[in-house]
Amino acid sequence: MADVLSQGEIDALLSALTTGEMNAEELIKLESEKKVRMYDFKRALRFSKDQIRNLSRIHENYARLLTTYFSARLRSLVQIQVASVEQVPYEEYIRSIPSMTFLNVVEPAPLTGRFLLETNPNIAYAMFDRVLGGRGMSINKIDNLTEIERKILSSLFESMLTSLAEAWSSVIDLQPVSENIEVNPQFLQLVSPNETVVVISLSTSIAETSGYMTLCLPHVVLEEILPKLTNHHWFQEQRGVISEEDAELLNKQVKKTSIDVSAELGRSEITIDEFLQLREGDVITLNQLIDESLQVLVGGEHKFKGQPGLQRDRMAIQVTEVLGGTEDE
């Protein structure tokens, strides 16, 4: 889409042309020149805008689920929300996270490959402190984890995967499993350095401690389900998901719906002048012969043919023929 100038920019441009500061011929020449846009092949954009938006929606739901879970589990005020969703090379992502941090390697069965859930030490130890009954204070210690610390932190990280599976349930029946926990990202080669990954940054605050958690989703892992992340497929799936109980209830409600049924005795065309001259007792000739079947309209559409008569001293019409379509229609 072409850039749209504001009114101020338009006024400034006209003023420059009027005073001679800018030459109209130079503008035309500049516009006709071939424009070159720089493209970095190391930062190939392999996810469409639709896919990024839907990934953002999924993980906004994930953030809400984590907020609810940890608020109850830690008995403290916890706020988690999506800060950003962007696609970058894996190498750039590794350089952007702390040199010592908690890296939970996740196998997202049935997908092939691995996800990466990175938790800043400030957040991890604040969770750890709250679980043990503390105030949620963070400590600067990560290199030497005791067996008890590793066990408690692993339990917290695994509970985060349960919420992740629930957030992804509208797209795929994900069964993520924690493979192991690393602390140095330089020793972890998840995919090739130039592989495009989506990085979801989750802004997290626990009591007085704040920090970030990031989720790294490689393109090669998500590739087989990318068609399900488009808006077309998303809305199509939403329309198609309906239980048998809901379908039966919907069918009952539709059958109770009132609809207009009318019989058309015939038609005629007259001029406006003839219409204005109509008086009581005048006869209008119809295009329908007396021995021909009448058209029966349902909701304004011709659905049946019938013949007029009486039923218990009331005017009625007997259906003699069903016009095109199925019996259900």
TrEMBL record:
It is found in: Bacterial flagellum basal body; Cell membrane. Residues 253-323 form the Flagellar motor switch protein FliN-like C-terminal domain. The keyword Cell inner membrane does not apply. Its main location: other. Belongs to the FliM family. Keywords: Bacterial flagellum, Cell membrane, Cell projection, Chemotaxis, Cilium, Flagellar rotation, Flagellum, Membrane. This is Flagellar motor switch protein FliM. It is a peripheral membrane protein. Gene3D superfamilies: CheC-like, SpoA-like. Pfam families: FliM, FliMN_C.
